[in-house]
Structure prediction request, 734 residues.
Amino acid sequence: MSHLHYRIRVAIPLHLYDCFDYLLSESQYQQAEVGARVAVSFGRQNLVGIISEKLAPDAPLDPHIKLKSITELLDQHAILDANSLKLLNWAAKYYQFPLGEVLHSALPSLLRQGKPYNLLARMWRVLDVIAEDKLKRSEKQREAYKVLKLHPTGTAENILNLAGIETSTLKALEKKGIVDCVLEPQDFSPMPMTLAQMPLTANDEQKVAIQSILKAKNKYQAFLLDGLTGSGKTEVYLQVMQEVLKQGKQVLVLVPEIGLTPQTISRFQSRFHCNIVLMHSGLNDSKRLQAWQHAQTGKASIILGTRSAIFAPMANLGLIILDEEHDLSFKQQESFRYHARDVALYRAYLQQCPIVLGSATPSIDSYALVKQGKMTALQLNQRAGSAIMPKIHVLDLKVENKIHGISQSLIGEIKKRLEKKEQVLVFLNRRGYAPVLICDSCAWQAKCPNCDANFTVHHQPYVHLHCHHCGTIQRKPDTCPSCNHQELKPIGLGTGKVEEQLAELFPDYPVLRVDRDSTSRVGSWQKIYDKIHSSEPLILLGTQMLAKGHHFPYVTLVAILDIDSGLLSVDFRAPERTAQLIIQVAGRAGRGERKGDVYLQTLRPDHPLLSTIVNHDYRAFAKQTLAEREIAQLPPFRYAALVRCESRSQDQNLDMLTQHAQFLRDMSAQKISIWGPIPAPMERKAGRFHAHMVLLATERSQLHLQLGVWWPNLLQQKPAQMKLSLDIDPQELS
Ligand code: ADP
Ligand code: ZN
Ligand code: ZN
Prediction:
C-alpha cells in the first residue's frame, strides 16, 4: 500500500496566493474535514491553517517535492460549514485576495490563534427568589435581578451584557448570595422566539413591502427598501423578521457603525424575546468567539453586526437585512477590500433566502440593479406617524452676514428654536479646531512634514497640531517658524472651534459635541444619547457620526455649515456621497411632532445638485446621475478595479504601473481600458509616494479572468519596499 499518500491542502494566513500540501497519518486523514483548523509549520513559522481540500490518497505525488507533515489537527469537525466555505472561496476569487487570509478574517481571533473551539459559558442563576425587597437601594441590581428571575435555569453572561446588565452588577448580587454563576458547556439549542410587544399597524406602503418580501421567504430575492428617513423601514424589517424567526430561522442584520447598534438592539429586544447577539470589532476576544459560536450553531436567532459579520457562519440563515445600504463603511478600505453589501447579495443567493437593502438614499449601484431587474424596489414615500419632511433652505455665504463663519440669519433661527425649548443639530464634517494654521504676516502654513497636507489644529485635550492623514502630532509653534511673527491664526472651521463659538453665542444652552474625538470613550455616546432623548433644549454639534440612522425626536432645526468640498471634488462618486450626506443629515430634523427646517450654508447656491436636494427629490437626482454615468460609461455601467502603488519613489511607481498596464492591454486584447497611471490626489503620504491606475471593463468576467493572471504576476515582480493593492469595485478614487 506504499503508493497511498495522505495529504491535505491547507490555506495558511500569509499573503500568498497558493495553498500548500501537508502530509498526515491515515487516521488523521480519516478525521480531517475540509473547513477544520490544522497547526502547521511553514518556513520557520508555526501557523494555524484551514483545510481547503482533501487530496485523494492515490493521487500521484511529485517525488521531487518534499512535503512536511502537519503538526496537529486542531478541530474534530469543520468549524466553517460548506456554505461559508463557498462564500469565502468566492470572496477570495472575486476580490483577488489570498484564500488563507480571507478564511482567517472570518474567524474570531481566539480561533485564529489555535485556541480550542469548545468554550465554557458563564451562566448566572437566581438562588434567592424572594430577594426583591433587599435590592431597594440599587436600581441596577434590581433590574438585573428581575431579568434573571425570568429564566430560572440561568442566563449566559454575554446575553445579560447585551441587555445592558454589567458583569459588576452581577458580581455584586453574587456577593449578597442572591445569584450565583456556574460554568457550563455551551448548550446550543435555540430559544424559541416569542413576541414581547405587538407590531405597529403597518400603513399601506409598509404592508406592500412586508408582503412582497414575505412572498420570497424561502428563496433568493433581493429587495431595495427605498424609503424616506423616518418612513418606517425599521418597522418593515421587524415585521418581516418576525415571520422568519417564527419559522425557526436566523436573521442577519448588518448596520454601518457600532454607534448605531445600542439603539437598534434595544428596538429588537423590546419587540422579540429571543437570543440576539452582537458582532462588532469592539467586543473582546472571548465575547466575540461566543457570539460567533452562537451564530454558527444556530443558538442565536438574530445576529446584529457591522461589516465583518457578513462572514459569520450561520446554521440556519433565513433572511439578511442591510440597513443604510449606501453607507461607505460597508466597504473595507484596507487589505481585504470587500464590500459587505455585495458579499451579502451573494450570500443570500447561496443560501436561497431573501435579502433587504434599506436606505433613504440608496446607492446608485443599487438603483442600477433595480433597473436591470436584479433587485425589486419597494418604496415608502410618507413619514410614518405624523411627522412630515423638513424644509431645506440654502444660505448663500457670499451675501450672508457672518459671525465666525456662521450666517447671522442662521444664528437667529437657532436662537428661536432654543427659546421654544427645541433642539438644534449643527453638522460639520471636520474634526479638530481648525483645518489650517497660517501666519498673519508671511502666509506660512503649518504643513505635515510627511504628507502633502496641512496640519489640523486641535485644542483638545491640549493645543497641538495633528495630521489626519498619517497621524503625526506636533507642538503648535508660538511664533512663525518662517518670519518669527507672533500671530499664528487658525483658519477655517472645525468642530472644536464651532463648539467654542456656539458656547459663546448661546451661553444658556448645552453644546454637545459628537465626533470621533469626543465619543471614543466607552459609554460617552450613550450619555449624550440619553440627554438628546430627555427633550431639553440643546445644541448637538457633530460630524458624519450624526448623519447615520439616529432618531432625534426633539431636533427641529438642522444646520449644515459646509459641504462645498463635496460639491467641488473630482471623484465621480462625490455628488452621490454629497447628496446622501445632505439628505441623511436633513433627515434628522422634524422626526417628532414638530416640523423641521434645514439650513445649508454654501458658496455655490446655484449648484444643480442642491436644487434637486432642496425638493427632497433624491430619486430624481439618482436617475440623472445614472444617466450621466451611462453616457460616461462609468460604474456601474463598467466594472472597475483600482490599482494603488506606494513606494519611496514616484518614478518607480509610475514605471512599474506603466509597464504592467501595457501587459494588461496586450493580454486582454484591449478589452480592459486603463486610466493612468497617475500620481494619487495626495501624492505624498506618511513619507511615501502614491500613484494609482483604474482598470475598466464592460464585462465583469473579462476583468476577473485577466486579473487572476496579471495581478499575482505583478505582485511577484514588485520590489520589496513597494506596496501594491488591488481594489475591486473601488468606492473612492484616491
Ligand atoms: P426609518 O427606519 O425609515 O427611519 P422608523 O422605522 O425608525 O423609520 O420609523 C420612524 C418612526 O415612526 C418611529 O418612531 C416608528 O416607531 C414610527 N412608525 C413606524 N411605522 C409606523 C406605523 N405603521 N404606525 C405608527 N408609527 C410608525
Ligand atoms: Zn510668518
Ligand atoms: Zn501627515
